[in-house]
Amino acid sequence: MVNFIEIKEATMTGEQYAVEELTRAAIRQGADAEQIIQEGFIAAMSIVGEKFGAGEIYIPEMLKAARAMKYGMEVLRPLLVGNKARTLATVVIGTVKGDMHDIGKNLVGMMLEGSGFEVIDLGIDVPVDKFVDAVKQHHPRFLAMSALLTTTMEKMKMVIDELEAAGLRQGVNVFVGGAPVNQDFADKIGADGFGVNAGQAAELMKRMLK
Ligand code: B12
């Protein structure tokens, strides 16, 4: 029996090597990558977020948990990314300016790669003009932006406005996501797509290609 609680607890407490080991063991026992992510990693990060919000833990603990999740995700990477035999479309992805959170963005990137998209990752803290330049340079079908802070969400609208001003808006479907982002916000800023999680984003993009 795969013990997802153990994975969740080791992630919460930031025991990176235990997370790595437990994740490997879970795969050996036939666990689904998606389930490990949801019941292990994401469940842990939401408790960590709550504890941080309540002042029970501080940044170092949050960082340790984040690092542990990254170790676990690396174990899962080959399962999520798979073989890249086909390319459906190109996606440029990044976390907006002022925002250093990249776990969700990386997960979305991996799921998209696994679904057959070519992913160009601009990283974190990406300035508005860097997103615009990347669209100019790569002509992606999709631009995906991630924000985890209410204070950085507004950068997504700035990118959309700048794409418009540069005459590039028509050629690209803009996707937004991240914990504080919702469909309402996406509609308000004129984005074409939103996903609560990585799987949803990939599904919606695939549907848009039809
Ligand atoms: C880990 C973490 C950190 C780590 C980040 C490490 C890293 N490399 O990413 C560190 C310690 C660096 C950090 C720093 C800070 N953090 Co922080 N952090 C978190 C935490 C606990 C988990 C985030 C996470 O990785 N979740 C797991 C991933 C898988 O989920 P996700 O990112 O939401 O992504 C999923 C979806 O949202 C979606 N998605 C994500 N991006 C996209 C993009 C697209 C296009 C689509 C379609 C979907 C999509 O798909 C993903 C997979 O399913 C959250 C709590 C939380 N519940 O979110 C707080 C949280 C986001 N942090 C918070 C805060 C306040 C901060 C700091 C300001 C703290 C400080 N005082 O310095 C700094 C800001 C630093 C900065 N400038 O960015 C607050 C934000 C509050 C707010 N409303 O703005 C939160 C909510 C904690 C809290 N409860 O207070 N943080």
What does this structure look like?
- The structure is a single chain.
- The N and C termini lie far apart (40 Å).
- 57% of the residues lie in helices and 10% in strands.
- The protein is α/β, with parallel strands linked by helices.
- Strands 2-1-3-4-5 form a five-stranded parallel beta sheet, sandwiched between helices.
- The protein has helices at 4-12, 16-28, 33-53, 59-81, 103-114, 128-138, 154-165, 183-188, 198-209, and strands at residues 90-95, 118-121, 142-146, 173-177, 193-194.
- The mean pLDDT is 95.
Residue stretches low in confidence (pLDDT < 50, at least 5 long) are none
Please count the beta strands (DSSP E, at least 2 residues each). 5
Give me the secondary-structure category: alpha/beta
Q: DSSP helix count?
A: 9
What's the rounded overall pLDDT mean? 95
Radius of gyration: 17 Å
Short description:
By secondary structure, the protein is of the alpha/beta class.
Entry keywords:
single chain; 210 residues; alpha/beta; 9 helices; binds cobalamin
